[in-house]
Amino acid sequence: MIATVVVMLLCCFFFATIMQKGVPERMPIAVVDLDKTTTSRNVIHQLNSMQMVQVTKVCNSYSEARDMLQRGDIYGFMLIPRGFYNKLAGLRRPTLSVYTNNTYTVGANMAYKQLLTMCNLVAGALQLEVFTAVGLTEDQAMTLIQPIVMENHQIGNPKANYAIYLVGTILPGILGLIVLTTTIFSIGLELKDKTSREWLEIAGGSMPVALIGKLLPYNLIYLALGICCNMLLFEVMDLPVAGSFLLMSLAMLVYVCAMQAIAVLFIGLIPTVRTALSIGALYGMLAFSMSGFTYPPMAMLPAFRALTWLFPLGHYYHIYANEALLNGPIENTILPIIWMLLALIPQLFIVERLRYAAVNLNYSPK
Questions:
Q1: 311 CB contacts (<8 Å, ≥6 apart)?
Q2: What is the pLDDT of residues 321-364, one digit of tens each?
Q3: Quick check: pTM over 0.85?
Q4: What is the dihedral sign for C-alpha 110, 116, 121, 124?
Q5: Strand partners, 29
Q6: Cα–Cα distance, 5 to 38 (Å, whole number)
Q7: Which of 10, 106, 116, 192 is 20 to 30 A from 264 (CA-CA)?
Q8: CA–CA separation, 97 vs 74, rounded Å?
Q9: Quick one: 34 exposed, middle or buried, by C-beta within 10 A (0-12, 13-18, 19+)?
Q10: Which residues contact 328 (CB under 8 A, 6 or more apart)?
Q11: Residue 319 burial by CB count (10 A; 0-12/13-18/19+): exposed, middle or buried?
Q12: Residues 115, 31: contact at Cβ < 8 Å?
């Protein structure tokens, strides 16, 4: 019960709280102000007013800021050189330098985006001041500064909320990993403790009946956990659900069944609980990388792109994106469900081998 229920509930609580705001806010950055003028202080003030970053330190040297960056105290810093205002006023193209630590990918990228925005705002403010000084109106000046205005529409995730695509896939991925390991362990324990013959006798000598009796209670628990995860996402965390919650629940059922079938395949091919658990854990962890929610399959090498079809988590992610975010056509949901159902087929060819192991395997726990 701890491995099946408690661990999953703890993961739900962890991700629901850590991703509560959706996007990182007030990430620490620093500024090296070597100019020490009203203009440079205004740049620092404007940076501090941005939502995603906070200037926690105004350094007196590049070395001081670099040490803070290398220690992980800040995600990035801006260097304002000496004579910045004089060059700015004299139209001599001053340089603002931006440094980020990309060891922390999300924090560094967000900090870089805010620092770069500030650099562009400083340049735009100078151009506006110059053009208005020679007699242009503000509208005429803005036409010269930004002749083309771009509108950015982010479909499905307009707020760039990290929880929408991270938590919505990580929690089903963790559930799939739990399904794999506990299913392998529950069947492998019969072999390890030499109770597999008694297990088979209770099922009337039928391995399909024995598997149904063994896995059905787990299946209902996993399905309940999966639906609870979706309710947490869409009701508690208030993530968008544009399509059908019923279809997503059906997809969760098929996803759980597919993961159970793969677990039976592993323990059937290698009827040793330790080895089968190791392979199952490796497969479950690879699913996070191969499912496509962090690195798109179309950008992978062709050989690895083909392997993505072997992971039910990837198919579930496509259903989640289609139903929850895009409300796309029904065929975009049905096809991944069919692919997950295909994972049940190899189980049919492993049943006899598993029955042979249950009857004849003399496994020593040592």
A1: 283, 286, 287, 290, 291
A2: 888 888 888 888 899 999 999 999 988 888 889 998 888 875 54
A3: no
A4: negative
A5: 55
A6: 59
A7: 10
A8: 16
A9: middle
A10: 243, 322
A11: buried
A12: no
How is residue 128 written in tokens? 């506006």
Q: What are the tens digits of pLDDT across the range 28-55? A: 999 999 988 888 888 888 888 887 888 8
Hey, what are 134's tokens? 């020679």
User: Running DSSP on this structure, what letter comes out for residue 9?
Assistant: H
Q: What is the pLDDT of residues 139-162, one digit of tens each?
A: 877 777 777 777 777 777 766 677
21 confidence band (pLDDT: 50, 70, 90):
low
Distance (Å) of CA 187 to CA 182, 256, 324, 353: 9, 16, 35, 13
DSSP string, 245-291: HHHHHHHHHHHHHHHHHHHHHHHHHS--HHHHHHHHHHHHHHHHHHS
**Amino acid (one-letter) located at 198:** E
User: Which of the 8 DSSP states describes residue 58?
Assistant: E
Residues in the chain: 366
* DSSP strands (E only) in the chain: 27-33, 53-59, 76-80, 97-100
Written as six digits, the tokens of 39 are 């203009």
The pLDDT, as a whole number, for residue 113 is: 86
